[in-house]
Amino acid sequence: MGYPPRYGRPSDETARGLAVIALLAVGLVIGAVVTMVTVLDPPAPMRSASATAGAAHSEEEVRRSVQPVLDAYSSGSYGDFWDLWSTDAKGLIGREDYIRLFRLCPQPTDGATSTGAPPADPSADPASTGLPSGGAAFTIDSVTVHGDDATVQAIRSGTATGFGFRFEEGSWRYAPSPEEREEYRTKTADQIALERRGAGLCGATVPDPADPANPSPGPVPGSSPDPADPSSAPSSNGPSPGPADPSEGRTGPTSDPAASTPASGATPDVFTPAPDPSSPPSGSVRDPERDPAAPSSDPASAPPAQES
């Protein structure tokens, strides 16, 4: 006859299960305590990074960071201004094309915006306005920060204009408006300049000396001609003078150069030197018979006259 079956777990298994449950409970308590300490008292590096990010997003820091960006544009340093754009905005138009855009269409002085939009209302959304144009510097009027995006209202020549900026790589960079983005994305610099010029939004264009399409200007009226270049002599006061008269400045009778030029085969005139002191004085008569060198009075023996 066998023994009856035993009911329930052995006492040793029950003890092991209770021990596991107790360990799990202790682990949960420890994890909760560590989490609370980490959240309520973060490590020093985390606190430093958080404090730095908070300082960079303050109104004073935004003012200090965006003022050089606005100064670069207002002073005409378009390459430096483009360097301070956000990364995605730089992909809309290249640096050289942006500089060329303002070479073709310089900033006007009437306070109109470079994209053709009217001056912005200070209460309007700055993201919907374009860059203003002019020559004066910008004065920041107000700053509004929304996370990593900032809205800056700047005044120039009495006109308020809105700008968008984005915090990227530790600094605030210019973020073009949606209208500007669409313009740079769909058109070339020449097309944009042509449209702006047609709308009267460009200033006086300065010719680029490096461009072959712009020939160098001629001599300035009234300037001294180049002695090495006969064509540079001024011709606005009548026909060019002829060659100088060789007889000009001389005294006494002069001979006609045309008449003194000997014909072909003729003997040219020879300048007669001063008389020899040993010769007889002027007015004396020589005897042809005694002096062979004396001139003969016989017409037949006289030498033929020399053609002049």
From TrEMBL:
Segments crossing the lipid bilayer: 20-40
Keywords tagged on the record: Membrane, Transmembrane, Transmembrane helix
Range of residues in the leader sequence: none
Biased composition (Low complexity): 111-130, 229-239, 251-269, 293-308
Record region (Disordered): 109-135, 201-308
The UniProt record lists the keyword Cell cycle: no
Protein's name in the database: Uncharacterized protein
Lineage: Bacteria, Bacillati, Actinomycetota, Actinomycetes, Streptosporangiales
Keyword ATP-binding annotated: no
Domain of life: Bacteria
Compositionally biased region (Pro residues): 209-228
